[in-house]
Specification:
Blueprint: H1 9-28, E1 33-37, E2 40-62, E3 68-73, E4 80-81, E5 86-90, H2 93-128, H3 134-167, E6 169-171, E7 176-178, E8 188-189, E9 200-215, H4 216-227, E10 240-244, E11 253-260, E12 270-277, E13 289-304, E14 309-312, E15 315-321, E16 327-338, E17 341-346, E18 354-357, E19 371-374
Parallel strand pairs: 1-19
Antiparallel strand pairs: 1-18, 2-9, 2-13, 3-5, 3-8, 4-7, 5-6, 7-9, 9-12, 10-11, 10-13, 11-12, 13-17, 14-15, 15-16, 16-17
Helix pairs in contact: 2-3
């Protein structure tokens, strides 16, 4: 069985000596070589990021319009339904009896009309021969009018009974995904406009909304861009957006703005915005959080390769080479990606010589003199990709 190697004082000393000799050899070989280039100045599309959540385009609480006992539940909890699908059936027997009774009243009133019509016609003939006073004719006419009114009332009662019978079948008012049943078969439910029992809920999933809050500063900036014509207002223009979910690295979900609220919240200093997305596969679900990128207008920016940005604790730093040939680190504020390059929002000047090659050399660090080879930065793509 081979023995495990354990570092000793001698081995550690040898390693230190080797490292020191390597550094000395590097120093004797001259300063490290790097490739530098000025940042690429370009007008790109600015994309602002916001956090929000998806919301259903429509949400309906399904309630009965008539009272009665639930006879059947005709859907599976959590399934998708189409508008008009039968969800619940309330015991229809009392409603059918009401329809039959109302129809009988219609027939009765119609028969009364026939009788009163005949009496009125006879009275008209008798008045002509003075065999009947005019007052009798007026009475017959009044009876006929009353019979017509009774028929109209009976017809209205019949329509109400038929409507109640129709409402005993509770159907989906919209297409979407239904929640679970709140009431099982055999339970008594209350219908009507006030205090009606909630049977279930339905949310429309396609299309779907994404709602977020923007700052007052963002709103003012967008308004100024709209005034000078650089970017249309999202109230009138479907500005493009993209959304990234929690487990996604790209921004695959494309949508467009379709609403901006009419006032800024005085307490939070934010204004509500809304985008709309197609959701044919019903993958996006109301309540899901995400990150949204909204087109924020044109931006004159400096672009560098993303690999040229290094991390220094909590800061992002770009190494540059000064006029004296020494490395100068510059903290920067990063923007999005454009043309395959990283947007630098602040921290760099157009004349800076950014180190874009040789960063892997451990001797390239702040204050070290380097040999800089000048080159240029070229965009990866001809224009900003959608959603970047």
């Amino acid at each position: 069985m081979p023995l495990a190697f354990r570092p000793t004082r001698v081995s550690l000393a040898l390693a230190a000596a080797f490292s020191l000799s390597a550094a000395t050899a590097h120093a004797q070989g001259g300063p490290p070589q790097v490739t530098v280039a000025p940042p690429l100045a370009s007008r790109v599309a600015q994309w602002d990021e916001f956090t929000g959540r998806f919301e259903a385009m429509e949400r309906v609480e399904v309630r009965p319009r008539v009272s009665g006992y639930i006879d059947q539940v005709n859907f599976r909890d959590g399934s998708t339904v189409k508008q008009g699908d039968l969800l619940f059936t309330i015991d229809q027997r009392p409603f059918r009896l009401a329809v039959d009774s109302a129809r009988a009243d219609v027939v009765r009133t119609q028969a009364q009309i026939v009788l009163d019509q005949a009496d009125y016609q006879r009275a008209q003939e008798l008045v002509k021969t003075a065999a009947t006073p005019v007052s009798t004719l007026d009475l017959r006419k009044a009876n006929l009018d009353i019979a017509h009114a009774q028929e109209m009332a009976a017809q209205a009662t019949l329509h109400t009974a038929e409507l109640n019978l129709e409402w005993s079948e509770v159907r989906a008012p919209i297409s979407g995904r239904v929640s679970d049943r709140r009431v099982d078969a055999g339970n008594l439910v209350t219908g009507g406009q006030n205090g009606a029992t909630i049977l279930t809920t339905i949310v429309r999933l396609d299309p779907i909304y994404f709602v977020f809050d923007g700052s007052e500063a963002d709103y003012i900036r967008y308004s100024r861009l709209s005034v000078d014509g650089s970017r249309g207002s999202s109230r009138d223009t479907p500005n493009p957006v993209r959304v990234q979910l929690a487990d996604e690295k790209d921004w695959p979900h494309q949508g467009a703005m379709n609403f901006v609220d009419n006032e800024i919240n005085a307490h939070s200093g934010t204004i509500r915005g809304r985008a709309i997305f197609d959701n044919k596969d019903l993958f996006l679900t109301p309540g899901t959080f995400g990150r949204l990128r909204l087109y924020g207008g044109p931006l004159d920016a400096l672009l560098i390769p993303d690999a040229a940005v290094v991390s220094d604790q909590a800061n992002k730093v770009v190494l540059t080479v000064g006029a004296d040939g020494k490395v100068v680190p510059k903290p920067v504020t990063l923007g999005g990606m454009a043309r395959g390059l990283r947007v630098i929002a602040s921290g760099l000047a157009p004349t800076d010589r950014v180190v874009i090659g040789g960063l892997a050399n451990p001797f390239v660090r702040a204050g070290v003199a380097v040999v800089a080879r000048q080159t240029e930065i070229h965009p990866v793509g001809s224009q900003l990709a959608a959603g970047e």
